[in-house]
Amino acid sequence: MIEGGLHEDGGRAAYLASFHAAQAYIFEREGRAAKSHRGVQSSFYRLTKDRPTFDADLRAFLARSYDLKTIADYESDPNSTTSASEAREAIETAARFVNQVEKLIDGQPSA
């Protein structure tokens, strides 16, 4: 996506990967499916805020990266875009986020 100039799509994909990983964790912990973006973000934060092994910056990434999805889906202002470096960083951070959530689900330390 980045090499093809689809920076907004890359940013959206990074958010959605994190969103779906958070949904999976919520389901594993609570046996329920959180569906809304706000519901997933708040439930995930609540479930991980007291877990020192889950990186606080990654926890905040879920809410921060929602802006990338918003830009990709709704923004019509040509000055509101996602740069290649922003998209690349988001994709890399999303990969770390998914990896840490996978460890939480598996019961492994995430550090």
How would you characterize the overall build of this protein?
The longest helix is centred in the first third of the chain and has 24 residues, at 7-30. The chain is mainly alpha-helical. It is globular. It is built from four helices and no strands. The protein has a single domain (7-106), classed as Up-down Bundle (Four Helix Bundle (Hemerythrin (Met), subunit A)). It has helices at residues 7-30, 37-48, 56-74, 84-106. 70% of the residues lie in helices and 0% in strands.
Defining traits:
Four Helix Bundle (Hemerythrin (Met), subunit A); single chain; 4 helices; mainly alpha; 111 residues
Give the topology.
Elements: H1 7-30, H2 37-48, H3 56-74, H4 84-106
Helix pairs in contact: 1-2, 1-3, 1-4, 2-3, 3-4
Mean pLDDT: 92
What number of structural domains do the residues give?
A: 1
Relevant CATH superfamily: Nucleotidyltransferases  domain 2
Whole-Å distance between the termini?
A: 29 Å
For the record, the CATH architecture stands as Up-down Bundle
Query: Can you tell me the CATH class?
Result: Mainly Alpha
Low-confidence stretches: none
Strand segment tally = 0
**Subunit organisation of the chains:** single chain
